[in-house]
Design a protein that fits this description.
The complex is a heterodimer of chains A (455) and B (288). Chain A has 455 residues and is of the alpha/beta class. Chain A contains 19 helices and 10 strands. Chain B has a two-stranded antiparallel ribbon. Chain B has 13 helices and 2 strands; from the N terminus they run H-E-E-H-H-H-H-H-H-H-H-H-H-H-H. Chain B is globular and about 80 Å long. Chain B has 288 residues and is mainly alpha-helical. The chains are: A alpha/beta (455), B mainly alpha (288). Chains A and B meet through helix 1, helix 11 and helix 18 of A and helix 1, strand 1, helix 7, helix 10 and helix 12 of B.
């Protein structure tokens, strides 16, 4: 019987840890009022100098591996400031912890790693410090235009410093293209024709895989098509995930999926890794970081890949979307806003540090200086047959649409996409109708959450 | 004098009561409290009384999830308990040569954490590389898509049966060991063979243990979470966020930021489990 007891114990324990975690998150709701944002008037140079020479410790939450290398350079320049690096998990895990700490009113870091797409989620709750008083606007020219748009809030606040980016391109298997006589498609029409030709020539190969669990890639394709799915303005929210551009994307991929000319395997799973290595997918529509990722995850195919821009809707006006990349943001409630802001600035603007990110962490940079730096763009990538992949993506970065915005509840938007459009993609259903359902779900959610939704 | 032993007894159960209050009653009470509010991204927290419960009762996605786990319970649990019963009777019969090995082998899957079990099965079910898929490829038949819409519940049932049949077998087996040997002797003298003994002595003696296993299974089925949560990664469009009620509550709290509503959903789920457990008890005790 002791076995039986311990078994029940384990089950209950599981459900209770869930309950306790829920309770913790809940408790957070009734936490103390958020501290006021710092005054908007600029902080004087004297104050900045004093803050940077006073012995201070700040905490930095990041998942970037080996970031100590970059932090050490900051310490060298500002010996008085000690930066404690904490790995609070990657992506969602980190955000859940950050949200909990913010609501609890204690335990939040001074500076945190935040992906572009999560900035509105955190700025909605006033959790990010406006960096304008600390001289952020003076650094504007250093960054690629679209990244600056991504960190700018609806009232012109600067909410973070861009760190790395993921302009989207097409990585393709040159050997498969050659074998079946396929040209690199310049337009989406060419791409569809190539998909038909390739799959007919070898039914075991698909021109690409559109993962039904990857709303981030889908958002990147919507971005490229010029969709204005989300427009955030305080509590007023423009929602149009099924606007004309989005419908165009949905019809296109829905058609290819229904004809079974593309596969829809979930990505970053065993099936998918195997597909990349075995040549099941002839292209991967991905971000600049995808080229680095492949080097490690598809070793068997080294030398067979090449990179090209995404196929275009209008070849006369090349546009790209972005997938991924992150920023450094200063978190509301920090006791050392000056040191924190200057650390975030240094980490992402100092030439030596940003350059180190491209070599030590293989980041794709957000600064104009590095994207024009021959030492970066001139690198020949053996995995891509000696192609200058960085140079190609540096060019693509300049074509990323500047106007794209993210919703203040990305988790919900992502989940609902998978359950509507993703489901239709795998099932061969009507994807355009499915994004209509996506729009309905998001509208209901946003209204329930107190937003005023405008089309 | 007579009250003294009772006082001592309370002292002994105090550690339990303390833990029970801190780790069970307190979070439960807190969740109940929270379920009466609504926290919005815009506009903050307001008291809404029982609105969350009213909403949950009309929530098609929640009801669909409850229906799914109920179906799961009705199909998977009888199969699992029959397997457990058969193995327990076989091991107890004394006719098996490697009884200890069989007992241990059947029980072993229970020692494998359900996370590991699910990951293993996820590999076995894989549509491109799983053994079944490879076999189909060799022999030229189309293997069923075990992670597809039509098969997923079956695949889940298979994992859970594998994990818990041995555990239930141990419960039944230990109950069998408590049957007094005189009864078997008496039966033997009356000329009963092994099948008769099993049917007329062992199975009736197992009633309380079977009931216990059944109640555990009610709770286990309705709280299904870890297995679907892990398979979600492999079948993201089949297992949606409301596939089981527990999964739904989890996603409401941590994806949709609707912690208050999630608390209400959890409470209703608890109520459903209570009712089903009661019905099971009522039906089985009436038959006696």
């Amino acid at each position: 019987m002791s076995l039986a007891v311990s078994r029940i114990g384990r089950r209950r324990l599981l459900s209770m840890t869930g309950a306790a975690a829920a309770a913790a998150a809940l408790g957070a709701c009734s936490g103390p009022e958020r501290e006021e944002q710092p005054p908007a008037e600029p902080v004087g140079q004297a104050d900045i100098d004093r803050a940077l020479t006073t012995p201070t410790t700040i905490t930095f939450w990041t998942w970037v591996p080996d970031v100590q290398k970059e932090v050490a350079l900051f310490k060298k320049k500002y010996p008085a400031i000690t930066v404690t690096v904490v790995n609070a998990g990657q992506g969602l895990d980190a955000y859940t912890k950050l949200r909990t700490a913010l609501k609890a009113g204690t335990g939040a870091p001074d500076v945190a790693q935040i992906e572009f797409q999560y900035i509105p989620t955190f700025s909605l709750t006033n959790s990010l410090v406006d960096l304008r008083p600390y001289g952020a606007e003076a650094t504007r020219e250093k960054f690629v235009d679209w990244t600056w748009g991504q960190v700018t809030g609806p009232k012109g606040e600067i909410l973070a410093y861009p760190q790395d980016t993921g302009p989207m391109g097409m990585l393709y298997r040159a050997d498969l293209f050659d074998r079946h006589g396929i040209e690199v498609p310049a337009t989406w029409n060419d791409f569809a024709a190539a998909a038909r030709k390739l799959h007919a020539a070898d039914p075991g190969v698909y021109l690409t895989n559109i993962a039904a669990n990857e709303p981030a890639a889908w958002h990147g394709l919507m971005w490229q098509a010029g969709s204005k799915a989300y427009t955030v303005n305080g509590t007023e929210l423009g929602l149009a995930v099924d606007d004309e551009a989005a419908r165009k994307v949905a019809d296109y991929w829905g058609g290819l999926a229904r004809e079974k000319l593309i596969s829809t395997d979930p990505d970053f799973t065993d099936t998918w890794y195997q597909g990349l290595n075995s040549g099941k997918y002839a292209t991967w529509l991905t971000a600049a970081w995808g080229s680095v990722f492949l080097t490690g995850s598809a070793k068997a195919t080294a030398g067979k890949w090449r990179a090209a821009p995404l196929p275009q809707w209008d070849p006369a006006r090349p546009v790209a979307g972005n997938w991924g990349g992150s920023t450094s943001a200063v978190i509301t409630g920090t006791k050392n806003p000056i040191a924190a802001a200057k650390f975030a600035e240094f980490l992402n603007t100092d030439h030596e540090v940003t350059k180190l990110f491209t070599t030590a962490q293989n980041f794709f940079p957000a600064t104009k200086a590095l994207l024009a730096d021959p030492a970066f763009t001139g690198a020949e990538n053996a995995f891509f047959g000696g192609q200058r992949v960085n140079e190609l993506f540096a060019g693509i970065s300049g074509t990323v649409d500047v106007g794209w915005q993210w919703p203040p509840f990305l988790d919900q938007a992502s989940k609902d996409w998978t359950e509507t459009a993703g489901k239709a993609l795998t099932g061969g259903g009507d994807v355009a109708a499915a994004i209509g359902a996506w729009q309905e779900r998001l509208t209901a959610y946003a209204e329930d959450q107190g937003f005023t939704v405008v089309e | 004098m007579s009250s003294k032993p009772a006082n001592h007894a309370y002292l002994f159960v105090a550690p339990f009561l303390l833990c029970f209050a801190l780790l069970f009653l307190l979070p439960l009470g807190y969740a109940a409290y929270l379920s009466l509010f609504k926290d919005q991204l815009v506009g903050g927290t307001v008291f809404v009384g029982l609105d969350n419960y009213g909403r949950a009762l009309q929530d098609g996605r929640l009801l669909g999830g409850v229906g799914r786990v109920a179906l799961f319970f009705l199909v998977q649990v009888p199969i699992m308990l029959l397997v457990a019963l058969a193995v327990a009777l076989a091991v107890d019969s004394g006719l098996l040569r490697l009884a200890r090995l069989v007992r241990l082998g059947t029980f072993l899957p229970y020692a494998v954490p359900s996370v590991v079990a699910t990951l293993m099965c996820g590999y076995l079910y894989g549509p491109d590389f799983g053994p079944l898929a490879q076999l189909g490829d060799r022999l030229g038949f189309d293997p069923p898509d075990l992670l597809g819409d039509g098969w997923l519940l079956v695949s889940l049932g298979n994992i859970v049966t594998w994990e818990f049949a041995g555990y239930n077998m141990i419960i039944l087996y230990s109950a069998l060991r408590t049957v007094p040997a005189e009864r078997y002797e008496a039966a033997a003298i009356d000329g009963a063979g092994p099948w008769r003994v099993a049917w007329h002595i062992k199975i009736p003696a197992l009633r309380p243990a079977l009931l216990l296993a059944l109640i555990f299974s009610v709770i286990g089925s309705f709280q299904l979470f870890a297995e679907p949560n892990l398979l979600q990664r492999l079948a993201p469009t089949v297992i949606d966020s409301a596939y089981t009620p527990n999964l739904y509550a989890y996603h409401l709290a941590f994806t949709s930021q609707q912690v208050n509503y999630a608390a209400a959903v959890s409470f209703l789920l608890g109520l459903v489990i209570l009712v089903v457990s009661y019905v099971v008890l009522f039906l089985t005790s009436r038959r006696r």
